[in-house]
Design brief:
The two termini are 19 Å apart. Helix content is 36%, strand content 13%. The protein folds into 2 domains: 125 residues, 3-Layer(aba) Sandwich (Rossmann fold); 180 residues, Rossmann fold (3-Layer(aba) Sandwich). It is an alpha/beta fold. The C terminus is likely disordered. It contains 12 helices and 11 strands. The structure holds nicotinamide-adenine-dinucleotide (NAD).
């Protein structure tokens, strides 16, 4: 990455690890545009210290991730992952799949009530589910406005039939769901994660699924991506794993590319970016420019100076 991006003023990335080492070796860098929502792959402190602006692209894939989370909830509830292989083997039985519980009147617990969490809440309300939400950064009124009830994490885990995770991966949310939290969940509950794999302690989850402490899990994200082919999470018959595809549709993919390019162009031409996640960096950047430290950089940058570390084979948002 350092070699490929060393002449770049702006780097466009997806899950590429923009570590302190990478950032400190890209001497011309003024901006990093994460082509997606989660920017846990970027060392924000290292970027901010150098006045490097970091932007993400929120909102453009919200509906797709929402649909994917709801699809996992429905598939697990209706046991489609077990029924489909059975009918493919020409079995014609419904009894084998008992018990299946309805969603209507059950409780959905939403962890992280941001853009995606709110859309998931709306969809699950339409399935006549009671919605409760845990998000310490969102007011009770915002949750109640969408027909939900605010809860503590412990209350949510203990009373939900479906738990769905929509938080960013931060120091605070890493392993937010571990052994103790899984032990609070109902044996009949399902857990869905379309946020980031490391929000769940995966070993504790495998243990909990194996013991029947929770019923099933739907995971679009894993602690390590791509996973080791021998990772036991891929083999459990009460788990659906999808390859970090929640963000994707033809429509969202073009929106994302267009918006990412426009954000990079704004930085290159000295305009204010729209989704700066470290606003302190912009003032530092302006100060540095005034001090003449960055005479080499800025609006004279040509198109070739924008390095895309992002590869078409690795679109992970
Ligand atoms: N699977 C995919 O393809 C895919 C695509 C897009 C986003 N994502 C993931 O989904 C996450 C959520 O996306 P979004 O657009 O809803 O983001 P968002 O920023 O709109 O919402 C995140 C919510 O999490 C809350 N939160 C933060 N820390 C929390 C904590 N400790 N406990 C509870 N809540 C907390 C925030 O207050 C916010 O309301 C992203 O950060 C990203 O990691 C995955």
């Amino acid at each position: 990455m350092i070699e490929g991006a060393k002449e770049a003023d702006v780097v466009v990335c997806d899950v590429s690890p923009m570590t302190r080492n990478v950032i400190s070796n890209l001497r011309r860098l003024v901006g990093i545009v994460e082509s997606g929502v989660g920017y846990d792959n970027i060392d924000l402190d290292a970027a901010t210290e150098r006045g490097i602006m970091v932007c993400n692209v929120p909102n453009f894939i919200t509906c797709e991730v929402t649909d994917h989370a709801v699809a996992l909830i429905l598939a697990l509830t209706r046991k489609l992952h077990q029924i489909i292989p059975s009918t493919r083997a020409a079995e014609w039985t419904w009894r084998k799949f008992r018990p299946i519980q309805g969603l209507d009147g059950k409780t959905a617990g939403i962890i992280g009530f941001g853009n995606i969490g709110r859309q998931v809440a709306k969809r699950l309300r339409a399935f006549e589910m009671d919605v409760i939400a845990y998000d310490p950064y969102v007011s009770s009124q915002a949750i109640e406005r969408l027909g939900g009830k605010p809860a503590t994490l412990e209350q949510l885990l203990a009373s939900s039939d479906v738990v769905t995770i929509h938080v960013p991966l931060t120091k605070e949310t890493r392993h937010l769901i571990g052994k103790a939290e899984l032990a609070l969940m109902k044996n009949s509950a399902i857990l869905v994660n379309t946020a980031r794999g490391s929000v769940i302690d995966q070993e504790a989850l495998i243990d909990s699924l194996g013991k029947g402490q929770i019923r099933a899990a739907g995971l679009d994200v894993l602690a390590v991506e791509p996973p080791d082919p021998n990772d036991p999470i891929l083999r459990l018959d009460n788990v659906i794993v999808t390859p970090h595809i929640g963000w994707y549709s033809e429509e969202s993919s073009s929106r994302l590319q267009e918006y990412t390019a426009l954000e990079a162009k704004r930085i290159l031409s000295g305009e204010a970016p729209r989704n700066l996640v470290n606003p302190q960096a912009r003032s530092k950047h302006t100060e540095d420019l005034q001090c003449g430290k960055r005479r080499e950089r800025g609006s004279r940058t040509s198109r070739k100076d924008m390095a895309a570390t992002h590869s078409s084979e690795r679109h992970h948002w």
